[in-house]
Amino acid sequence: MTASQDPQAAEPTRITVPGSAGTQPYDVLIGRSLLGELPALIGTEARRVAVLHPEALAGTGELIREDLAAQGYETIAVQVPNAEEAKTASVAAYCWKALGQSGFTRTDVVVAVGGGATTDLSGFVAASWLRGVRWIAVPTTVLGMVDAAVGGKTGINTAEGKNLVGAFHPPAGVLCDLASLDSLPVHDYVSGLAEIIKAGFIADPAILALIEADPQAARGPGGPHTAELLERSIRVKAQVVAGDLRESGPREILNYGHTLAHAIEKNERYTWRHGAAVSVGMVFAAELGRIAGRLDDATADRHRAVLSSVGLPVTYRGDQWPRLLETMRIDKKSRGDRLRFIVLEGLARPAVLEAPDPGMLVAAHAEIAA
Ligand SMILES: NC(=O)c1ccc[n+]([C@@H]2O[C@H](COP(=O)([O-])OP(=O)(O)OC[C@H]3O[C@@H](n4cnc5c(N)ncnc54)[C@H](O)[C@@H]3O)[C@@H](O)[C@H]2O)c1
Ligand SMILES: O=C(O)C(=O)C[C@@H](O)[C@H](O)[C@H](O)COP(=O)(O)O
Ligand SMILES: [Zn+2]
């Protein structure tokens, strides 16, 4: 029996991401056994479908490919490396070659099955192939569901840093099958909690209360609030990107904690998970906000407490500051020589801190230095 024929499938939750900057609205579905939704999203014009998946999900990728082949599409499965190793120009070129050799035209469709690294790469391949083909995201990690697959930021890394090449190219739909979280290692599950906690601090403090009520339960898919945490975070993301797809202003709040996080990821040669780096980055941003006189002590301290309660890191090697500072200069929020950070002026009150005094950065760094 294919997943699309599962009689147990309950009605999924549907969150619509409104169209923005001339793009079409699309739905994020959260539930179980959602593969039956794929053909409607692929549409009737498509003849070929490419299923991109990481090595770790070879079985799932093949199952989806077979399901679509049985429905009459010409299908290819394209296996890419796990995690950040997939977000390179050479892997993108490998995918372009696979599309070219299969005769992939503008009406054909990419289906991305995997975590945020896979959906970032696949979305970028879809954005660049023939200058843009339709793609559908099937995120299989917490982080992919609540953040990476939603909002249309796609991209790859370069030797100089994280996500430096990419495109805004929203998917035609996002299918979050909760069953896929059962196979996710706890380390990866917890990494996704960092982006959920980010959504809590920048927009929806109820998220923080749900996690603080039982941090241990939040560390796995069986917790009492799993679905609510995912849904609340997706609603935050959907609402923010709806107003500013191309990040001309308000969308920058989703980058809370990311200025330092991306520098840590590069410094660690991408052996740290993104969420772990975002966790340290948010503590840094909270300290920066406090030192700049914008954020109260209690909210700043709450970052360290809630992040460490679920097992996320809140410190980083103290001897790396010059390298981190250098990398932060190429952050996408920078303007010329001016570094720009998202800070909080209270719970759910994000703001931009422009060109902070270097002494403030050093002082904030001292608070996270191990
Ligand atoms: N585009 C965006 O808006 C956006 C937002 C947030 C993060 N991101 C990006 O997302 C990436 C991080 O994504 P991630 O945390 O999902 O990690 P990931 O994609 O690197 O996946 C982590 C590991 O889990 C494996 N995996 C995935 N699903 C699995 C499953 N169900 N069971 C077992 N193993 C599974 C992967 O193959 C990989 O080895 C980073 O590159 C980050 O920059 C993008
Ligand atoms: O969607 C956004 O906008 C974000 O900033 C979400 C982040 O969680 C995500 O990591 C994003 O990929 C970072 O984007 P970048 O523009 O800083 O590379
Ligand atoms: Zn992120």
Automatic annotation (TrEMBL):
UniProt subcellular location: Cytoplasm
UniProt cross-references to CDD domains, sorted A to Z: DHQS
Main location: cytoplasm
Gene Ontology MF annotations: 3-dehydroquinate synthase activity
Signal sequence region: none
Residue ranges annotated for the 3-dehydroquinate synthase N-terminal domain, each copy included: 78-188
Transmembrane segments: none
Keyword Zinc: yes
Alphabetical keyword list: Amino-acid biosynthesis, Aromatic amino acid biosynthesis, Cobalt, Cytoplasm, Lyase, Metal-binding, NAD, Nucleotide-binding, Zinc
Domain 3-dehydroquinate synthase C-terminal: 192-334
Residues at which NAD(+) binds: G116, A117, T118, T119, D120, T140, T141, K153, K162
Family matches, as Pfam families: DHQ_synthase, DHQS_C
Comment on bound cofactor: Binds 1 divalent metal cation per subunit. Can use either Co(2+) or Zn(2+).
Residue numbers binding Zn(2+): E195, H258, H274
EC number: 4.2.3.4
Catalyzed reaction equations: 7-phospho-2-dehydro-3-deoxy-D-arabino-heptonate = 3-dehydroquinate + phosphate
Pathway membership: Metabolic intermediate biosynthesis; chorismate biosynthesis; chorismate from D-erythrose 4-phosphate and phosphoenolpyruvate: step 2/7
Gene3D superfamilies named in the record: 3.40.50.1970, Dehydroquinate synthase-like - alpha domain
CC cofactor: Co(2+); Zn(2+); NAD(+)
Enzyme class per UniProt: lyase
Family annotation (HAMAP family): DHQ_synthase
NCBIfam families xrefs: aroB
Primary role: Catalyzes the conversion of 3-deoxy-D-arabino-heptulosonate 7-phosphate (DAHP) to dehydroquinate (DHQ).
Family: Belongs to the sugar phosphate cyclases superfamily. Dehydroquinate synthase family.
PANTHER family on file: 3-DEHYDROQUINATE SYNTHASE, 3-DEHYDROQUINATE SYNTHASE, CHLOROPLASTIC
Protein's UniProt name: 3-dehydroquinate synthase
